[in-house]
UniProtKB/TrEMBL annotation:
<keyword id="KW-0393">Immunoglobulin domain</keyword>
<dbReference type="InterPro" id="IPR007110">
    <property type="entry name" value="Ig-like_dom"/>
</dbReference>
<dbReference type="InterPro" id="IPR013783">
    <property type="entry name" value="Ig-like_fold"/>
</dbReference>
<dbReference type="GO" id="GO:0060097">
    <property type="term" value="P:cytoskeletal rearrangement involved in phagocytosis, engulfment"/>
</dbReference>
<dbReference type="InterPro" id="IPR036179">
    <property type="entry name" value="Ig-like_dom_sf"/>
</dbReference>
<comment type="similarity">
    <text>Belongs to the immunoglobulin superfamily. TIM family.</text>
</comment>
<keyword id="KW-0325">Glycoprotein</keyword>
<dbReference type="GO" id="GO:0043277">
    <property type="term" value="P:apoptotic cell clearance"/>
</dbReference>
<dbReference type="Pfam" id="PF07686">
    <property type="entry name" value="V-set"/>
</dbReference>
<dbReference type="GO" id="GO:0016020">
    <property type="term" value="C:membrane"/>
</dbReference>
<feature type="domain" description="Ig-like">
    <location>
        <begin position="19"/>
        <end position="120"/>
    </location>
</feature>
<protein>
    <recommendedName>
        <fullName>Ig-like domain-containing protein</fullName>
    </recommendedName>
</protein>
<keyword id="KW-0732">Signal</keyword>
<keyword id="KW-1133">Transmembrane helix</keyword>
<keyword id="KW-0472">Membrane</keyword>
<dbReference type="InterPro" id="IPR003599">
    <property type="entry name" value="Ig_sub"/>
</dbReference>
<keyword id="KW-0812">Transmembrane</keyword>
Length: 126
């Protein structure tokens, strides 16, 4: 008997401008899954949790002890499954890979969203 595991993966490419806010989308269906814990991290998403975690929720609110910087905000409606990450005052150092993991009960059911962020210098007008 062959057991096939399907792990939902999505790769998004997001561009932003230094000095502005940029939002990395991550949403889940609250009606079918119920309230789910979510974590955001830098780099590839490992088998469990988030690597280099920058912010996380308990399913209803941000777990403040996990917030690495006040520049990282979850401004969407958490009670509607919108756990998109907004990075305030983005810098070129924010460029790179990010991952959002929505914890779904059961083995290997978590939803994973992979995002590649590129921040470029803004135009300077004199």
């Amino acid at each position: 008997l062959l057991l096939l595991l399907y792990i939902l993966r999505l790769l998004l490419l997001i561009d932003g401008v230094a000095g502005q806010s940029v939002t990395l989308p991550c949403k889940y269906d609250l009606k079918t899954q119920g309230s789910s814990a979510v974590c955001w991290g830098r780099g590839a998403i490992p088998t469990y949790g988030c690597s280099d975690q920058i912010i996380a929720t308990d399913g209803t609110k941000v777990r403040e002890e996990t917030r690495r910087s006040n520049r990282y905000q979850l401004l969407g409606k958490l009670d509607h499954g919108d756990v998109s990450l907004t990075i305030l005052n983005a810098t070129e150092r924010d460029s790179g890979q990010y991952g959002c993991r929505v914890q779904v009960s059961g083995w290997f059911n978590d939803e994973k969203y992979h995002i590649e962020l590129t921040i470029t210098k803004g135009d300077i007008h004199c």
